[in-house]
Amino acid sequence: MTLELEAVDQVKQYLEAQANLGTLRFITCGSVDDGKSTLIGRMLFEAQSIFDDQLTYLQLDSKKARTQGDSFDFALLVDGLTSEREQGITIDVAYRFFATDQRKFIVADTPGHEQYTRNMVTGASTADVAVILIDARQGVLTQTRRHSLICSTLGIRKVVIAINKMDLVEYSKEVFDQISEEYKNFADALQFEQTLAIPISALKGDNIIKRSSYMSWFQGPTLLGFLEIVDTNNSSIKYPLRFPVQWVTRSNTDFRGFSGTVEAGTVNVGQKIRVLPSSETATIKEIILFKEHLQSAQHDRAVTLTLDKEIDVSRGDVIVAKDAPCEVSDQFEVKLVWMDRDSGYVGRSFFLKLGASLVNAQITSIKHKININNLENLSAAELQFNELYVITLKTDRPIAFERYHKCPPMGAFILIDRMSNQTVAAGMIEFALRRATNIHGQKLEINKISRRKLNGHNSQVLWFTGLSGSGKSSIANALEKILHSRGIRTYLLDGDNVRHGLNSDLGFTAADRVENIRRAGEVAKLMVDAGVVVLTAFISPFKAERDMVRQLFEEEEFFEIFIDTPLEVAELRDTKGLYKKARRGEIPNFTGIGSPYEPPLTPELHIKTTEKSVEQAVEQIMAFLNFK
User: Is 299:265 a contact under the CB 8 Å cutoff?
Assistant: First the structure.
């Protein structure tokens, strides 16, 4: 009985000691087959963080895989997906927990393949330290540079350069020194505060936990030894209060609380606060954690707050210290990792999610792309897969934020495709564009409603879209004649005519097509505000741009009319000879030949010109519009 009590006491003492240890989050990254998964498996093994049954399965799996002969394949502890084991690569981010007597660790094993860079960004976004592996046989590779640049951009300041597979280069000091020097020359331009190179063999265990007898020439710490003592300088606790509201809680008619996580600083009962972006002020009345009432809550604590008075607070608002608020803006310069295989263009609209805030956002300019190899700034007209950019964007309403490098949770965001709901980019706010606070809308006495009353009809946009030669302009022109004869004030924006003036500086690249439609949409918006019925005849081949224009208008102001003509029919008409030139290669990026046309999925009107004449198409449109 005494022995059992002693065992229980020992377990309690161990758990108490573990509870008081700090936690370090680190990421392993680098190029393909640099040994990231093997390194983590070895660390788990050496730290005795593997259960007996896991060790048994590892032994059986290693014999089955035969990737390391009769030895353990430690990568199998981390690569859990069948496709990862079959290919011998990491695809998804794998998180593992282990602890020593000095510290607790959460490690993210991230993919090395370029196509899975988005997963690497996910792992790096919460890491305090990066362990960047380099195969001693390969040296510094492009993906090594890409991951280093992303780590620096995401605010990781402490980096270990783990030069792995030293056993395969006979533990050569010369090889280690050469790679260390090459990496240092590259990383000098990055924003790392500390970089430490350590020669290791993840497979053999050299310099992981114990010093290697084969590399007595290296006098630095072991990898785990460094991770146990590295100071991450977490400034989030010392930072002023930042509390994004994730949920407004109404448990009954008398209770209204605001739930979320303290992203920075400390919140105290009786503390005066400010709610952004509204800037209303109040005092913290209660801090609630389930059934417990706290006097204070620090960084990383999820709690519910109540206030001493009723003010308007919604999901996405940010509660901050009254005398130390964060910034509010609707225009930003940001760094962006583009994660979508489809290119991104200036003018395209997305959802922007920052914390609990979800707003509409539009890319307003691409300032430059950052060259992965030499960190030079390169001009760019579009955003391409896995590349890093500096861009500007605007949101449809002001949001509360912090510069990413000051307070990462308040400056990190993602862009989401409006139609597919897929994440297309991850971004970090650099700063607000000051002109956003200097420009204010002028209140006008005569508005859209008064102009419509004067004209005697509503104003709206009839957006004709279809291939070149489909009959858009012919139908729009015939329709305008009918409307004009009935006293309807109209204006026809024809694609060709607009390109002779307003858009004469644009070509026919994908980026120029996006800008062409963006400008046309803005002009149409002004005309609708003027009380005019606007007819537009643009190919407008991309669904994203047509949807972007639709967002500019209120309900019942925008009508998409799909003039559906098969490509072969449009080619037969070819009154301008454009298809023949495109077929001969004289017109690059011609819609339907060298560039795609994305048909509308749910247009207000779908007119098949193989079944209807121009007159019949006009009758169908008039019946739909119901103009008297």
Answer: yes
